[in-house]
Structure formats: C-alpha cells, structure tokens
Specification:
InterPro entries: DUF6767 (IPR046658). This protein has helices spanning 31-38, 40-57. By secondary structure, the chain is mainly α. The protein binds iron/sulfur cluster. Iron/sulfur cluster binds next to helix 1. The site of iron/sulfur cluster has 14 residues, from helix 1.
Length: 59
C-alpha cells in the first residue's frame, strides 16, 4: 500500500484518492465512483468537472 503511486480520484479531478468513502481501498472499489458511473446525470456532471479541471491546467 505504501509503495503504490497515488491513485487519482475519478470523482474529484486533480485530487488523489484520500479514501474518503467508507470501505474503499482505492478508486477501484470506491462506492462513490460506482454510483457516479451508474448515474447518467452524475456522469455528465463529472465530465463537465473534468473538462473544467483540464482547462484550469492549461492556463
Ligand atoms: S474514496 Fe472514492 S471518492 Fe474518495 S477520494 Fe477515493 S476515489 Fe475519490
């Protein structure tokens, strides 16, 4: 665990996973990530956030 590279949180663009979701051991088994992926509206919101984060980084 200590030697793993910091995984990025899929639902918080630009942030690394802080294991904020109870029971998650990483983005792979994070319940919140699954929830967002399963919900079309949340997925669209996430896509918007990602585009925003990408735009921020290009400044
Ligand atoms: S536990 Fe899930 S929501 Fe929390 S930082 Fe990690 S991937 Fe993101």
């Amino acid at each position: 665990m200590a030697h793993r590279p910091d995984p990025k949180c899929p639902v918080r663009p630009g942030d690394t996973c802080s294991l904020c979701y109870p029971g998650a051991s990483g983005p792979e088994d994070c319940g919140l990530v699954w929830l967002v992926r399963e919900d079309p509206e949340l997925s669209a919101e996430l896509a918007r956030l990602r585009a925003e984060a990408a735009a921020d980084r290009s400044h």
